[in-house]
Amino acid sequence: TDVTSSKEDVEQDLLRILSYQAESAITQGNNQEAVVYIQRCKEILLRLPKDTAFLSLLCYNFGVDMYHLRKFEDSAFWLSQSYDIGKMNAKYAPGSEVLAKVLRLLATVYLEWDCQRFQDKALNAVSLANKECVSAFGLYLKIRILLTSGASDNHIRAGLNEMLESEASLEVCLNTVKLLMAEDREVLAFEYLKRMCQHFESSPDLGTALVLHIELLLQRGKELLGKQKIEDIITGHYTGKQLTPQALTTLHVMLWDKAANHFETSNYSEALQWYNYSLSFFKAGQMEPNLAKLQRNRASCFLQLKQLEKAKEAIKEAERCDPDCIFTQFSVYKIAVQENNMEKGTCKTLYFHFVGVCVCVCVLVCVLVTAWNLALQCESSPDRMRDFFVLSYQLSQLCPPDRTLLMGQRTCLLMAAAASLELCRKSPHSTQTEELTQALEHIQICWEIWKTLKASGSFPADPTDSLLLLYEFEARAKLNDPKVETIVESVLELENVEAKVLETIAALAMEPPAHFPLLCKKALRVALSLHKKQPQPDLAHCSKCVHSLIKLSLPSGVSEVEAHVLEEVWDYYEEALSIIASAPDDFAVMETLWLLTRAWNTGILLYSLAQYPEAEKWCGLAMSFVRHLGTLQESYETQMSGLYSEILDRLDKEKRNRNMEE
């Protein structure tokens, strides 16, 4: 019995050492070396099944790392290993939710690698995942794979039925409709959309689906059906079935686009009908600049249709909503001249002078707006987007300065800076300096404009300060400019700084070529503090901050750890335990498992370095996470308690040996 126990002890230690060596090999890019270590671990696992979940999770993490590096073949190998190991022993397996997650990622790898070549493997993986633990994401992934592999409508229809039966969210179903349309499965998309609207009939967000339905009908030239749907929505609007503000805004934009297209082709009656649909959603007496613009557009249609009285009524409403607008006054003059009303028109000469001025202003504004719109249309081309926003800013300098103009200039420069930074991210390292320098130029001019604007009045809840600081931080960090520390201080001095701003700072501090780990940790610590001060702390964000702090301070694959680093990381672990204790049911099990594994591996590393008291401390810390593993608790408790006892016994032996030597 003693011999057997001793052999198990040796194999247990060997398994831990081999797994640690595999992790180190992956970190150093030696994938084949890691494969050899894990294969030896699997051989030991046949005799020590209690480590099944641990080894399965380790392979899953390797698969995730390879996926992020776009090494699909290696990723598929490790994820397959993770699943196979997880199925080796049902008693000590990591659980169906974890195995389903492994399989979904494996299916995604096959899909992104080469779906035509690996469609059977991808479908098999996602089908197994949905059998292990069905989820909306798994069902959506199955539809993606079926579409990409060119499956028949009947196969896809079966997948869509599964999704509705599984009570997937409205958002997931809408994304599925968009996916079907993108893959030219129009019949299926409309069929599914109709069923979806029936399924979510009582949902307050049903309007989002209805608006999407209209959008798709109009895109396919089915205007008559689209109009019927719009009229149904208008009826619902006045019978207690209002759209959400976001859905209503989307619908207004759609209606105006259709009207503008008809106006450009001289189909004024049709244009008027689409504008009238938009008008139906405004309350009587409502005051809003958009309503003034809508009434001006309606007046233009009436004038083209020679309906002068109706044009006058529309312009009267526009004047009520926005009396100082030059475009409204221009429309008043146009109507006055058509009426031969000299009191309003003053005289032909004055009128033509006025028209001349208006034309000049209109042309300038039109060119400016065109540059702006072209910039927005160039989302996939950051260099063009930047150039058009810069052009829009330059044209605006020819206009008389006022508060509205300055706000437009600020937005142009912000967008130009953002486009320059995006271009930098996509450029080779050798050409990044020029893009970053340009971004800084836009940012500096924007700061000056923003100071002028702030001097003219207050801007509560305006994000400009945060955006400018974020953009400047990114540019200077990638230029390795020491001023980044000053920018972080400026961020911390902002009134009501948001945690997400600091989280972004932290991410940018480590985005290559930037490398400022100390600033990253500083930002994360403050972000964590802000999250904790909320009336209802966001545990997911708190957990993410702690995870990043631990990962930064204690990277995987290291061969030694300094004492002050261990002390720092220990504080982060205590923070993690307090977060879990505050809401144990809301903390992700996979995150708890990651914390446990990292603490345990640290203990094993310290043990291998003969730092026995520290090893005992860190293994004990890992044990404190076991009770928070939910369905995995029993499995890990059994295997880790034995290991922990063995470590304690060995530590006692080491202490006794040292005492005897002394």
TrEMBL record:
GO terms for biological process: meiotic cell cycle. Keywords: Meiosis, Membrane, Transmembrane, Transmembrane helix. SMART domains: TPR (SM00028). The chain crosses the membrane at residues 350-376. Gene3D superfamilies: Tetratricopeptide repeat domain. The keyword Protease does not apply. It comes from the Eukaryota. Pfam families: SPO22. InterPro entries: Spo22/ZIP4/TEX11, TPR-like_helical_dom_sf, TPR_rpt. This is Protein ZIP4 homolog.
